[in-house]
Specification:
Layout: H1 2-9, H2 13-24, E1 44-46, E2 54-57, H3 59-67, H4 71-86, E3 90-95, E4 99-104, H5 106-118, H6 126-129, H7 160-176, H8 186-207, E5 212-213, E6 227-229, H9 247-264, H10 274-291, H11 297-301, H12 303-327
Antiparallel strand pairs: 1-2, 2-4, 3-4, 5-6
């Protein structure tokens, strides 16, 4: 399917759509391979509806005069060309007076989430998620990501896997902590806490057998979130619909998409307020964790949903770590 190759090439959804808009509106055709949005000459923005991933382009309105064509006619022509190439990646709708709406399909969204989880450490496979094994030059540079943070109510953390993970974590933490000397604000501590909590919950799930991670090896580039099973994560149900349909799940996914857009495709001013971005993501995670359970009845009756929620935790941890370390210059703690 088209979405497999497309998602592996572009981490940012905005970047993916923008590249097709540029190509099919005959703008800057000599440089379409440089898909990062360095100057937003073509209007493209993400909609605010958390129930779907929607992007809106005003390219037809912008170009109609220079093309001497009606905006609706030009929009239809552009949409037709893009649909022929990647109609399974997103559905396209033309809205008067000439807006083009791009809505991500559930399969593409599942592939995108999988790519964020597995990063450049590989591990993709199956119908929903083998896109991530190519990785990404920015966000998905892998480094050790696992920790012991806040313990959830269980006794299974005392197994031998926990001991092996902890020995690695302590050595990694001692090496990396000295690299980050920025003074801490309350909001940054909130973000760090969210990062550590994501890590502890994933490790707990591994200890209880809900997921299985490959044993991490120190001093290598392989990420700790090398998921052996389930692989891919069961993002989609039997009807190919995303399992994550709770409002707080969708809000967290929306925040993840927005943050990755900001990382890969900053606007023309480049003035992203990264502390605010990170805080918004951590707050979305806290709401998700408060209202979308993984253990207890969910684990027993809907293990695939529990695993999909764990996948969302892993994706959140990966993005939080990148923002903390690469954009804010502070340590992404291995435990608090």
């Amino acid at each position: 399917m088209h979405h497999k190759s497309l998602v592996s090439k572009y981490t940012s959804i905005k970047q993916l759509i923008y590249s097709h808009v540029i190509k099919n509106s005959s703008i800057n055709t000599d440089s379409i391979n440089n898909v990062c949005i360095k100057n937003e000459k073509i209007p493209l923005y993400k909609g605010r509806d958390d129930n779907r991933v929607l992007y809106i382009s005003g390219v037809a309105l912008l170009r109609s005069k220079s093309q001497n064509r009606k905006a609706m006619e030009l929009a239809s022509a552009i949409a037709s060309e893009i649909s022929g190439v990647c109609g399974d990646v997103f559905s396209i709708q033309i809205v008067p007076p000439g807006w083009i709406h791009f809505e991500l399909t559930h399969s593409t969204l599942a592939a995108w989430l999988q790519s964020i989880v597995v990063g450049s450490s590989g591990g993709g496979g199956g119908d929903e998620g083998d896109e991530g094994d190519e990785g990404d030059g920015g966000l998905l540079k892998s480094m050790p990501n696992t920790t012991l943070g806040e313990a959830a109510p269980t006794t299974s953390l005392r197994d031998t896997t926990r001991t092996r993970f902890l020995s690695v974590i302590v050595r990694v933490a001692s090496r990396r902590e000295g690299q980050y000397k920025c003074p801490m604000s309350n909001s940054l501590f909130t973000v760090q806490y969210a990062h550590a909590r994501c890590c502890s919950l994933v490790l707990l799930a591994h200890g209880e057998g809900l997921i299985k991670l490959r044993e991490p090896v120190p001093n290598t580039s392989s990420g700790f979130w090398d998921v052996i099973t389930p692989n891919p994560i069961p993002w989609l149900n039997c009807d190919r619909i995303l399992r994550l349909n709770h409002p707080d799940e969708r809000r967290l996914i929306g925040e993840l998409i927005q943050v990755v857009d900001n990382i890969e495709c900053p606007d023309v001013s480049g003035s992203v307020k990264w502390e605010k971005v990170a805080l918004n993501l951590s707050q979305a995670f806290e709401k998700f964790w408060s209202n979308c359970r993984i253990w207890g009845e969910v684990k027993i009756t809907s293990p695939e949903l529990a695993q999909a929620r764990l996948g969302l935790l892993m994706a959140t941890q990966s993005v939080l770590r990148f923002v903390l370390e690469e954009k804010l210059g502070v340590f992404a703690p291995l435990e608090l």
